[in-house]
Amino acid sequence: MPVYTTHFVIATTAPMSRKPAPKGATPLVLRKQMMAPRALVWVGAVGALLLIMGLTLSNTPELPTRNGDALLPATPLDTKSVHTPTLDTVPVTAPAPPTPPWQDFTAREGDNLSLIFARAGFTDTDLYRVAQANESTSLRRIYPGETIGFQTDTDGALLALRHVQSPLLTTLYERQPTGYTARRVTRTPDRIARDVSLTIDSSLFLAGIDAGLSDAMIMALAGIFGGVIDFVLDPRQGDTIHVLYEELMLDGERFDDGPILAASFTNQGDTFEAYRYTDTEGDTSYYNELGVSMRKAFLRAPLDFTRVSSNFNPNRLHPIYKTQRPHRGTDYAASRGTPVYAAGDGRVVEAGYTRPNGNYVFIQHGEQFETHYLHLHRLQVKQGARVKQGEVIGTVGSTGAATGPHLHYEFLVNGVHRNPRTVHKILPKARSLSDAALPHYLASIRQPTQQLASLRDAQQLARVE
Asked: How far is CA 82 from CA 1, 65, 74, 79, 192, in A?
């Protein structure tokens, strides 16, 4: 920092004597007279100089002192808090190259990979290179609605390909020096706990739709309570159902139904409860509050319907042929398209069409039992297929000798027709959890039991208000 020096020049004029001094003599008297004024002037000048220097120094930072040829600071620097990086230590981050965009194509009816590659601007040679080392992966089969995406490099060559089979599963093919490699990318939806209460006015299906439940969830409810509730005669207007279930969410939106965790059905004042439980062997089923399985050998009724249009009657007058022919089953009136379930586990021994039966399905359950389903609109199983209780095997129709849409349902025990609505009394009893598993089960259902009770109390309180 430059150093500034202030110079003061003080001019004084001594009074001149009218009588000149003799030559060679020193005027002693005049010197004495001038000493006093000059001293005062010099003292004032020095004081002013000091005052100005003090003001200047008070506003000027302390200057470093010189030590040899280097300037050293008057106060030592804090080396811990001051850091001046050199050029070698400053990190330099190169900007990331932009990610090449994807070009997606949706598979159409009749599409194949060659057509999709051509629409994307690629050749069969590109397809061969991708599929050559990945014969066992998803590209062997594509279905309408699936997405095939292409990613290219700066030269327009195929860099990567993705096959989106579902929102939860994508197979990604990436170019490597040795060829294309495939890897599966899976996603797991979030599980959100939900509850719903519904009141039956006409049928379980309509009540479930009004409450916002999906068809699959309503079918699951029917399967859970189908062994203890006859959905033709048992439900009454005002019956209530409370359900605890999970909803699957993906990217903040509903993706699918999760499992039913617990449910209660209050029918004519009697409450039936069901709780989902997985045993030590990994088998998942539903049990009541005592640990008795809700899953009976057969459903009380194989569909959700509006009424019984014709009961089991060995002496019935046939409405079309006008002759007395035994009615060896029960007719359940329902709208066309209503799902029909397998009443129990078994194997489809016949499935086809005849003029009297229309579209029909026969299911064998073990050695003793067989169930028949007639006048179906559409079949959803084939002969020889294995089916599970509650699985949809067809839909209600009016094919064959039928006056309107309904299901004709028969139940045979050792080859003899029995009344489907009373045969459950002679069927095998439901199994219960073992004594060893029961304490763990009862502990696991403590919380859902309280939740169902709270839902019932809240609904009763709402009715009172």
From this structure: 22, 21, 17, 5, 53
Tell me, yes or no, whether 322 lies in a domain. yes
**pLDDT tens readout for residues 260-278:** 999 999 988 889 999 999 9
Q: What is the pLDDT of residues 11-32, one digit of tens each?
A: 444 444 444 444 444 444 444 4
Quick one: 181 and 218 in the same domain? no
**Which one is predicted more confidently, 233 or 277?**
277
CA distance 401 to 244: 43
Using an 8 Å Cβ cutoff, are 369 and 357 in contact?
A: no
Share of the chain above pLDDT 70, in %: 73
Residue 421: phi and psi, rounded to 5, are: -85, -10
Q: Are residues 275 and 331 in the same domain?
A: no
pTM of this structure: 0.60
Structural domain count, the chain: 3
CA distance 263 to 288: 10
Pair 197, 459: CB distance under 8 Å: yes
Q: Tell the residue number behind the tokens 């699936």, with chain if given.
A: 146
Q: What is the DSSP letter of 208?
A: H
Could you write out the DSSP letters of every residue in 329-346? SEEEE--TT-EEE-SSSE
Q: Do 409 and 363 share a structural domain?
A: yes
